[in-house]
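Repro:
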Amino acid sequence: MSRAKSTLEQWRIVQAVVDFGGYAQAAEKLNKSQSSLNHAVAKLQHQLGINLLEVKGRKAYLTEQGEVLLRRSRHLTQSVEELEQLASNLGQGWEPNLIIARELIYPMETLVQALNAFLPQSRGTRVTIIDSVITGTHELINNKHVDIAICTTPPKGHICEPLCEAKFELVCHPDHPLAQVGDIEDDKQLAQHLQIVIKDTATNTPNDIGWLKAEQRWTVSNFHEAKTILASNIGFCWIPNFVVQQELANKQLVRLHLRGSSQRKIIMNLLVPDRDNQGPASKLLESLILQQHNER
């Protein structure tokens, strides 16, 4: 393996000379002598066999070759700084990765607002968001595969913090036979028609969301797929109101009136599966998620 001809320190000096407008200014900012900077740049140019800078008057200017190499050097020094910061974070117990389980009925926009507040303080922590449904979320929690979970009813043995209320609408296309009915007497009348349900993400004993035991059902992975089917005048579906607000307003979908259950409400909760081993990044993000709802 061949050894590098240049050092990170040499490239940092070249960057400083360019950024601060000359050797004298860079020497003052770096608290080094001007002669040492001159020597470092001259040695780098000799090692590379190429001129990076040329001095005109009291100011140093990049050559064409120097401009290309300086741009690449900034990526290099930034990567090293990030690597050193990561090492420091790990030494302090700061997590390099966080995994969040989000029930599909929790608005992604609300979670993004918390993540946006987290980003400037994240120290480079990578975030993975897993969309989950019903017992699939419980599996992730029980197996401690996630750091934070936003779920409905928590699995046994776990405590949680209430966040908000998820509201479901019973909807179909305006031309669907059910839309022509005034009040639907009971779910048995609904069960005579095709129902669109959302697939449980559990690997064992799945329990599809909103299923009324209709003889005919189509199962999809998310509510956006369900809306596409509903827009074709096929079936009915229980769906979160934030997902269909626009379609209802534009009368592309209509609400169905089921006697005694025209709307359903579910409490969404924030849960940390392994509170004893929760790290500082997870604690910070947890507090920011809670803050989003405390401010509403």
